[in-house]
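Practice set, problem 2.
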Amino acid sequence: MEPHATTRHERAPSQLIGGWEAGLMGLLVLLYLGGAIVNPAFFGSAEAFHAVLRDTSRVAIIAVGMTFVIVNKDLDLSVGSTYGLVAVVFARLFASNVLDLNVLTAIILCMTLGIVIGLANGVLVTVLKVPAFIATLTVLFIGRGFVLALTHGQAIYYPGKAKDYPLFFHLGETNVFGFNNQIAIFAVVAVIGALVLGKTRWGYETFATGGNEQAAVYAGIPTNWVRIRAYLISSLCATLAGLMSAAQDKGVTPLYGVSGELTVIAAVIIGGASILGGRGRVAGSCLGALLVVLLDKVLREGWPIKRTVKIGDEEITVNAVFSLPVGAVPVFLGLLLVIAVLIEPHLIRRQVATRFWAWLRGRPPPPAYEIGGVALEGVQTKGAMATDTAMSTTTFGRLLGRRDSLAIILAVLLWLTGVALRPDYWWNLSNSFAILLNYTELALIAIGLTYVIAAGDIDLSVGSVLALSGSTAAYFLKVLGADPFTAIAMGLLAGMAAGFVNAVVTVGFKLPAFIATLGMYYIARGLAAWFVAGQQLAGWPEGYNLLGRKVNDILLHFRISLPPGILRTVAEVVSVQTIWMFFVALMAGVVLAYMPFGHKLRATGGNIRAAAYAGINTDQVRFIALMLAALCAAMAGIINAAYFRSFNPVAGQFRELDAIASVIIGGGSIFGGYGTMIGALAGAAVITLVRALMQLNVQGFSMPQHWINVFIGLILIVAVLIDIWVRQANIFGHLLARLARVRSGKEIAHG
């Protein structure tokens, strides 16, 4: 009699620590040994090891909270600005030359601020249904605006008053055991976080929600609360890290938390968490944080070299340190983020290492994990709203029925507001066209971004691509002495290269567009600073600057003089960049509205699966859209350098926020499937006019720039909420339908 076949039940993998963490430990040892070989003066000392652990503590604490969010299949891009904002708020509350509160009150208020930020993120994402990357990106920009506004760009220090509160400020110092207290705090937070995620009901609910939210709902798990709770944990961890920094440095600078979200997300992904949700361990995230901080240290500290300096006829050998150029570290961290996210679907889920080990031993390979871990969204776009049909009998009704009508009406109202507040400024033709010049840059970016958003993707890198293209052109003009045509060509090529990488990673490697372009956001910004060594460049041929000049200036450059009259008046105020922008918008608008590609684009964004079934090459459509967005941003960068006759590495900052707001205000849907060129241009006009009005000097008052960025962030959130709850959920349509039923019921009753 043959024995019965038995089924082997393998033990479930540990939720505390596993093989991935062991591999990270080995990699960390090798990396540290490499640093000690390259720079023994720094990495060969116990002080250096202690400094790495101390600096890792704050990053790892934030990574503990981020692990809960990412396992939930969400994302929190606001942790860096939360970290910086909490430190700045503590400084303003505590410093004797500002509010001069006691340390306990300052800590309580900062913790309250952290809770408010976490709740805001959670409610926006769960209750109000704002996509996580949009909600937290906006909070990031708003928080960064608050940091700059509250510090006025200056550092705040309080070492004298800190001596009166040794208990709190000793948290940033070395204890009697010889190590920094922050390391002990990190250890406690890491142990608690690991046990909660791996061994409690909270952790079970988190894994269930991230693995399959719909199944979790059927199992009775309150998934909305689970996701809100994760954002609260993430924000509180960032708050704790900010307070630890305030205790250690006894002061803050406006740069606190810059790029912190990139470091933390990269650490969690490197630690083995899946951007697709349902996978992650706190121990891995902490080791990932240690790896990222160690890499940052190795790159920033450089390595010792010997240089020969010639003084007269005598050559002297001196010791020096070779360090990477300005911007190199953000480039590397951006690459690290993209690579880390690619590791999970292409190596971990396919079990490449396990399969290779089985092949070496001649054993059958284990089954690969399911690759398609993300459910495709259903149809997000809606047909004509009930209100559209109800109001379509009149010309005004047809206007209100358009998705871009809000932007058009707002642009007109804002213009009239400017006329009412400062008619002396607003009616001046040259001032009006000066506003138009500021509008041109944003409108160009919005043109390309309209295609991307209509296709159902997003591009967070457009502002950085603008900077990269302008930096490349400036480098060729100033450093290499190239002619204007070569500089323009190389600037456009650099921007298109960035777009190509975005498209390949998004479409070819199936990475979420917001992650791919977030990585490029830092890579392109770092390269822009790298090319110009972090300095402002100026002084290139006037032939290049003509791209940003008025039409009459160009005619005079070629010794053509127009006679006095209306033609000359217009030529003196209209710039060539404005003409070029409208030409690009016209071509893009015709393609989007009337050409087959425009229909394919909207079909892809409306329902990518249905579009594929209809024979549309959706990958090609998305690829072209991302390339077009990069091209438009590159053109804006070329014009930026010409208009200002110089290039600053901070060019294009916050432009991605402005551009996304422009497209959404103009009728585009954050879920894809909609978008018009008229709407995008009108939305860009709204943002430009809002900035112009807030900077307008009215009776001696004008709003500082940093507060304007906060206001623009709020506008973006409102625009997205209008898209979701007014356009997509058709609140007005349901309200009018209910009123119509009530009215008909009354008529029947009276009849």
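Problem 2, part (b): a different protein.
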Amino acid sequence: MTVTDADNDWWRGAVIYQIYPRSFADSNGDGIGDLPGVTAHLDHVAALGADAIWLSPFFTSPMRDFGYDIADYCGVDPIFGTLADFDALIARAHALGLKVIIDQVYSHTSDQHVWFQESRSSRDNARADWYVWADARADGTPPNNWQSVFGGPAWTWDARRGQYYMHNFLSAQPDLNLHNRAVQDAALAAAQFWLERGVDGFRVDAINFAMHDPQLRDNPPAPDDGRPRTRPFDFQQHLYNQSHPDIVRFLERHRALTDAHGGAFTVAEVGGPTPQAEMHAFTAGSTRLNSAYGFDFLYAPALTPALVKQAVETWPDAPGTGWPSWAFENHDAPRAVSRWVDPDHRDAFAAMKMLLLLCLRGNAILFQGEELGLTQVDIPFDQLQDPEAIANWPLTLSRDGVRTPMPWQADAPNLGFGEGKPWLPVGADHEAMAVDRQTRDNGSLLNLTRGLIAMRAASPALRQGAMQVIEAGDALLVFTRSHRGQRLMCAFNLGKETLAWHPAGPDRIRVLAAVNGAQPGTLPPYSGMVLETIG
């Protein structure tokens, strides 16, 4: 049996647990989760069997976009703690065998960052070209038709320079000019700062927004595909405000840095309706990022066999092709059990969904509380915090509804999140799903998830193997996973009617895992199983 370099990559096939620190655990009673709160609950993640945690931003920030507007790449915001608290978190995670991945945001900063404060001060300062500035048109209007993701033009007038600056997101998030080599150097220096503090990798935020068309050409209109358009951003093809081909040159510099620090793992977030080409470009070969994920499942209105087949077949097991990562939920997308199934079938669906995610070829990213089956919380308008939700009310992605406090103890104030009033309300139905209750229940989703992750860790085929979709019907999904002599068949019923299904062939088989009564011959509603060929 030959062990390849790929077999030694800790991240290949890893289970990564995403922590949104603001909502994970509050250690000081101010209603906001923090780094000591994370550290105190890392045992929970280790007990799941996860390989790594991904920490959403905890950097110094005015919190206009809750940390994705960074004012100091190398600082910890006081609401989250201190650098010493971060060092303690790293030490505890590593002691538990957990790798630590943190966000890096190279597309934009906060308008409170010292770089932007200097850049806006004049047209001839040392950082004058560190952001994207442009003159007004002759009539005073913005230089082109680019629109912001959060609504309205992607340009804001600044009287100090007498120019517009570009922002793909909030006006408080000016876009960096990553075409500038000095800006790249500064971004890489920030990454090196965290590598030297012991982080094991980076999740690179919105990387396809990191470079613009220097000619500032207008975006063409997007054809009407029938989907609702709630923002001006939805009316354009985003050819020029993002996705410049030189992004990959920066990523090659980034890869050289991470390789120099023990091969730290890198995964890109790539948004948009057709991200596949960019995800492949950003991960091609051995000189760019290790992995990427898009929004195949995160914004999908339904989980179907066709969706799974389409998503996984864009990542063939071929030389030079990058490694995929998959998420059904995250801090930007509503809870899957609230999107994909009616309330009467949520428990069964959550179990089936978990097995499916852990059987896909690629890395599995779990969002905090997904292992508990948490539902989306309906946040009333007067309690909304998310600027996107407020701006687009009531046609909102409801990011606040997935960011509610983690329920640790059913009978404790605020479900054990902390003593102070939480920054978002706890879910009305989350008490029954609390960690302490599920830990004591052998049949809980939490304990099922622990067992399924252990199965995945022990299975070369599930961890790293090739995947071939055999059947993708209206509700029936069947695929194989194979690696180093192990061959598995995975069968799922994604619908609410019982299906008859028999594994083909004369081979002897054994059931490695089954949920909701699945067995060879019968797949009840929302069920699934993993079969191993013997001999």
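Answer key, part (b): The two ends are 17 Å apart (CA to CA). The chain has a mean pLDDT of 95.
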